C-alpha cells in the first residue's frame, strides 16, 4: 500500500483494532498516615482515601496508528498507559488485545500478547539495570523467549543496537557510561528486541534536551514505518504530541474529555479544557504576546469536583455542569467530546 | 541612551575541580535595559545557571569568577564585598529558582518569611510589612492572600509555591530579576498563568528580567531579546524576532529546527547530530565544530563573537545569511 493511502486509512481510523479498552477504571487506596490511623482508632470518622486515577475510560487504538495521550500531571496518563501495557491490572473493565481478553487467565495467548506490547519510560536510567552490560540488557529477554539463540545472540544484539542508533562497539559498557539520549536508545533497543507490534511510550522524550529530543523523535518516526509499529504516545508536551500523533486523546482528572485526529484537535478543539490547554501552550511562532490564562488550579484527584470535573475552571460552566457528569459523545465524524455545551444547540 | 540596568562584559566563571578546570562561563557579554526581558536559552550544561549565579554573586568554591565585569546600574558587582552584595540581593536584585524551596523556608509560615524579607531592607512597621506582603501575593495571582499568608509552604501546590517565591522576589520592586527555569516543572496551564503575571509586571514596574530557560517557545512569547548559549559561550544574540525568524548561527538554526511545531507534523525534525561536548576538555577551535554542518579549516580556531548588524551578535566564521542556505 502506498504511503498516502496508509495515511488516509489511518486518518479515517478504519484499521483493525489493536487494543480496545472498555470501561477501564483504576483506583488506588491512599493509606492513612500514622496520625490518621491513631485518630481512626480513637473513633474519628476518617476513612482511607480513594484516588480515582482512571475513571471509566473507553478507548480503541487501531493497527498502525500513533495515538497521543495528553493531560496535566496527575490526570492518569501513566496509570492508563500501564493498564494498556498489561503491567497494571485495572479495578474495572476489559482490555482486548487483537480481540483476546488480556485479563482472562485461561487465555493462553494473553502472555504472548503482553510480550508483544512493550513500554518505554521517561527515565531510562531508572529502568535499566545498572549492573548489566548493554548487550545483556538488550539480549536477555529475546534469549529467554526464544526469539534468538545462543549462537545468534551476538549478531542479534548488534542488529538491535544499530537499529536504535547505538554503535555495537559499546555493547560491553554499562548504562552509566552513556548520555541521557543514548540511554533512551538502549531502552528502545531493549523494547524492540522482543519484536513487539505495540509500544507504549510514557514521557519518553521528556527528560531530554531539545536537540536530543529531536533525534529520539526522529528515531520513533523511522521505526514506526520500518517495523509497522503502533504507538500510544503519552506526553504532557502538546508540541511533541501534535508532531508525532495521528490521533489525540485528552485526559482531565482521570477521564477522557476529548478525542479526535491531530488535525481536528489542534485546529478545532471542542472541549473547553482542550481549548484552554491549547491557549496556554507557548509557541515558537508567537512573538511578545499576552499569555492566555486559564483560571484556577488542577483539583486534587482525591477529591474531584462533582459533575464535570472541569467546571470550577471552565469559563462556560452552567448549573448542570456542577451536578451531572457529561458523557463522551461524537460531536463530528471522528471527534468525541464530553461537554454539556454540545447538547445545548 | 540611558545606562542599561545590567551590563555583563566578558564574564568568565570557572570551576577548579579535581578532574580539571570546567569553563562553565567563558567570555559572556550581554546587556539589558529597564523594563526589558532577556531570554537566556541553551541546553543543559551550557552555563545558563552559572551565568545567573555569577550575576547574583552566588558562585561557591570550587567555582570562581575569573574575569570580566558585571555592571549593575554602572557599579561593578564582581568587585563588591560580600556585605555590599547581600544588601543588593533580595532588595535591588532578586533571583527566582526552578525549585521554589530554594527561596522558601519549609518550617516558617509564609507571612513570617515575607515580613522578615520586607523588614530586612526597609524601615517600616510590621503592619506595613504585612500589608506589602499581602499586596504582593495578590499581584502574582494568589487568591485570598490574607488566608494564604498564614500557611506553611507545604500546604501549597507546586504552582502556588512558585508564585509565593516570585512574590518574595518582588517585595522590594527590584530593578533586576534573574529567573532560572521558574516554570519548567509546572503544568502548562499554571505556567501560562505565571508567564502572564510576569509579563504584566515587567511592563508596569520597569523591572529588567533575565529569563533562563531551555524552552525556545517560552522565550518567543515572553522576551524582547534572546541570547543563545552553547558550551559556556553566547553564540548568538539579538532581538527575539530576528534571531528566531532568521538565525545566523548554525546551532541556533539547528535548535529551532529541533522544536516540534505545527508546520512540520509527522515529518522527521531537522536534527543536530551528536551531543554537547563536556566542558572539562573542550577541544580548541569552535566548540560546535563536531556537530556543525558547515565547518572549515578556519573553525579550528576559536571564533570571536562579532556584531554582524546593529544589536546582532554571532560567534561563527560562516554565519548563515543567504535565505537559500536555510532552505537547504
Ligand atoms: N501506586 C499508586 N498509589 C496511589 N496513588 C497513585 C498510584 N499511582 C498513581 N496514583 C495517583 O493516581 C493519579 C494519576 O497518576 P498518574 O501517574 O497516572 O498521572 P500522570 O497523568 O501520569 O501524571 P504525570 O504527568 O505527573 O506523570 C495521581 O493522583 C496519582 O497520585
Ligand atoms: N559546583 C560545580 N562544580 C563543578 N562544575 C559545575 C558546578 N556547577 C556547575 N558546573 C558545571 O558548569 C557547567 C554549566 O552548568 P550550568 O550553568 O548549571 O548549566 P545550565 O544551567 O545551562 O544547565 C556544567 O558543565 C556544569 O557541570
Ligand atoms: S460540561 Fe460544563 S463545565 Fe464541563 S467543560 Fe462543558 S461547559 Fe465546561
Ligand atoms: S565557526 Fe565553523 S564550526 Fe563553528 S558554528 Fe561556525 S561554521 Fe560551524
Ligand atoms: Mg506520568
Ligand atoms: Mg540550569
Write the layout of secondary structure elements.
The complex is a heterodimer of chains A (345) and B (328).
Chain A lengths: L2 H10 L4 E14 L3 H8 L7 E14 L3 E5 L6 H8 L7 E6 L2 E2 L7 H7 L1 E4 L3 H4 L6 H11 L8 H11 L16 H13 L5 E5 L7 H18 L2 E5 L3 H7 L2 E6 L2 E7 H6 L4 H9 L38 H5 L5 E4 L2 E3 L3 H4 L1
Parallel strand pairs in A: 3-8, 3-9, 6-7, 7-8
Antiparallel strand pairs in A: 1-2, 1-4, 4-5, 9-10, 10-12, 11-12
Chain B lengths: L5 E12 L2 E13 L4 E5 L6 H9 L6 E10 L2 E2 L5 H7 L4 E4 L13 H12 L4 H14 L5 H4 L9 H13 L5 E5 L7 H18 L2 E6 L2 H7 L2 E6 L2 E7 H6 L4 H9 L47 E4 L2 E3 L8 H5 L1
Parallel strand pairs in B: 3-8, 3-9, 6-7, 7-8
Antiparallel strand pairs in B: 1-2, 1-4, 4-5, 9-10, 10-12, 11-12
The structure holds adenosine-5'-triphosphate, adenosine-5'-diphosphate, iron/sulfur cluster (2 copies) and magnesium ion (2 copies).
Tags for this entry?
heterodimer, A: 345 residues, alpha/beta, 8-stranded mixed beta sheet, 4-stranded antiparallel beta sheet, 14 helices, 12 strands, globular, disordered N terminus, B: 328 residues, Rossmann fold, binds adenosine-5'-triphosphate, binds adenosine-5'-diphosphate, binds iron/sulfur cluster, binds magnesium ion
Amino acid at each position: 500500500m502506498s504511503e498516502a493511502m496508509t495515511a488516509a486509512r489511518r486518518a479515517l481510523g478504519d484499521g483493525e483494532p489493536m487494543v480496545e479498552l472498555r470501561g477501564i477504571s483504576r483506583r488506588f487506596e491512599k493509606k492513612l498516615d500514622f496520625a490518621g490511623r491513631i485518630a481512626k482508632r480513637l473513633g474519628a470518622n476518617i476513612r482511607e482515601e480513594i484516588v480515582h486515577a482512571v475513571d471509566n475510560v473507553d478507548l480503541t487504538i487501531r493497527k498502525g496508528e500513533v495515538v497521543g495521550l495528553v493531560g496535566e500531571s496527575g490526570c492518569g496518563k501513566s496509570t492508563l498507559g500501564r493498564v494498556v501495557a498489561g503491567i497494571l491490572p485495572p479495578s474495572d473493565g476489559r482490555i482486548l488485545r487483537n480481540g483476546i481478553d488480556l485479563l482472562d487467565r485461561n487465555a493462553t495467548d494473553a502472555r504472548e500478547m503482553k510480550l508483544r506490547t512493550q513500554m518505554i519510560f521517561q527515565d531510562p536510567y531508572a529502568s535499566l539495570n545498572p549492573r548489566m552490560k548493554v548487550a545483556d540488557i538488550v539480549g536477555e529477554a529475546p534469549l529467554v523467549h526464544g526469539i534468538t539463540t545462543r549462537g545468534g545472540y551476538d549478531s542479534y544484539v548488534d542488529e538491535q543496537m544499530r537499529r536504535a542508533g547505538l554503535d555495537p562497539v559499546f555493547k560491553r559498557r554499562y548504562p552509566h557510561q552513556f548520555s541521557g539520549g543514548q540511554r533512551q536508545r538502549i531502552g528502545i533497543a531493549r523494547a524492540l528486541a522482543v519484536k513487539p507490534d505495540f509500544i507504549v511510550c510514557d514521557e519518553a522524550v521528556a527528560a531530554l534536551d531539545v536537540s536530543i529530543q529531536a533525534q529520539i523523535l526522529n528515531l520513533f518516526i523511522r521505526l514506526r514505518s520500518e517495523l509497522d509499529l503502533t504507538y500510544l504516545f503519552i506526553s504532557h508536551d502538546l508540541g511533541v504530541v501534535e508532531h508525532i500523533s495521528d490521533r489525540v486523546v485528552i485526559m482531565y482528572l482521570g477521564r477522557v474529555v476529548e478525542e479526535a485526529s491531530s488535525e481536528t484537535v489542534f485546529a478545532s478543539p471542542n472541549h473547553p479544557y482542550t481549548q484552554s490547554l491549547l491557549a496556554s501552550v507557548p509557541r515558537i511562532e508567537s512573538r511578545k504576546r499576552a499569555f492566555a490564562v486559564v483560571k484556577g488550579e488542577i483539583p486534587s484527584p482525591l477529591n474531584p469536583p462533582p459533575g464535570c470535573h472541569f467546571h470550577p475552571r471552565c469559563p462556560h460552566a452552567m448549573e448542570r455542569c456542577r451536578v451531572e457528569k457529561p458523557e463522551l459523545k461524537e460531536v463530528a465524524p471522528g471527534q468525541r467530546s464530553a461537554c454539556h455545551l454540545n447538547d445545548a444547540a | 541612551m540611558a545606562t542599561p540596568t545590567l551590563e555583563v562584559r566578558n564574564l568568565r566563571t570557572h570551576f577548579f575541580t579535581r578532574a580539571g578546570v570546567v569553563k562553565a562561563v567563558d567570555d559572556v557579554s550581554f546587556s539589558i535595559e529597564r523594563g526589558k526581558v532577556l531570554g537566556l536559552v541553551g541546553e543543559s550544561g551550557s552555563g545558563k545557571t552559572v551565568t545567573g549565579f555569577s550575576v547574583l554573586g552566588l558562585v561557591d568554591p570550587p567555582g570562581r569568577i575569573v574575569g570580566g565585569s558585571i555592571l549593575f546600574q554602572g557599579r561593578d558587582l564582581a568587585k563588591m564585598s560580600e556585605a555590599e552584595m547581600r544588601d543588593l540581593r533580595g532588595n535591588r536584585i532578586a533571583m527566582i529558582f526552578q525549585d521554589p524551596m530554594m527561596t522558601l523556608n519549609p518550617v516558617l509560615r509564609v507571612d513570617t518569611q515575607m515580613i522578615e524579607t520586607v523588614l530586612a531592607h526597609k524601615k517600616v512597621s510590621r503592619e506595613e510589612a504585612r500589608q506589602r506582603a499581602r499586596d504582593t501575593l495578590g499581584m502574582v495571582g494568589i487568591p485570598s492572600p490574607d488566608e494564604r499568608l498564614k500557611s506553611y509552604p507545604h500546604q501549597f501546590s507546586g504552582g502556588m509555591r512558585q508564585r509565593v517565591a516570585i512574590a518574595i522576589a518582588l517585595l522590594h520592586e527590584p530593578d533586576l530579576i534573574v529567573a532560572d527555569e521558574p516554570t519548567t516543572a509546572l503544568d502548562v496551564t499554571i505556567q501560562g498563568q505565571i508567564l502572564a503575571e510576569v509579563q504584566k509586571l515587567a511592563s508596569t514596574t520597569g523591572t529588567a528580567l533575565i529569563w533562563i530557560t531551555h524552552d525556545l517557545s517560552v522565550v518567543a512569547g515572553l522576551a524582547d531579546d534572546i541570547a543563545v548559549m552553547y558550551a559556556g559561550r553566547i553564540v548568538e544574540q539579538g532581538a527575539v524576532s530576528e534571531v528566531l525568524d532568521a538565525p545566523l548561527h548554525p546551532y541556533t538554526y539547528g535548535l529551532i529546527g529541533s522544536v516540534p511545531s505545527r508546520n512540520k507534523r509527522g515529518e522527521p525534525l531537522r536534527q543536530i547530530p551528536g551531543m554537547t561536548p563536556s566542558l572539562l576538555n573542550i577541544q580548541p577551535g569552535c566548540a560546535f565544530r563536531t556537530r556543525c554542518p558547515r565547518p572549515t579549516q578556519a573553525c579550528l580556531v576559536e571564533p570571536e563573537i562579532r556584531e554582524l548588524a546593529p544589536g546582532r551578535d554571532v560567534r561563527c566564521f560562516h554565519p548563515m545569511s543567504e535565505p537559500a542556505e536555510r532552505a537547504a
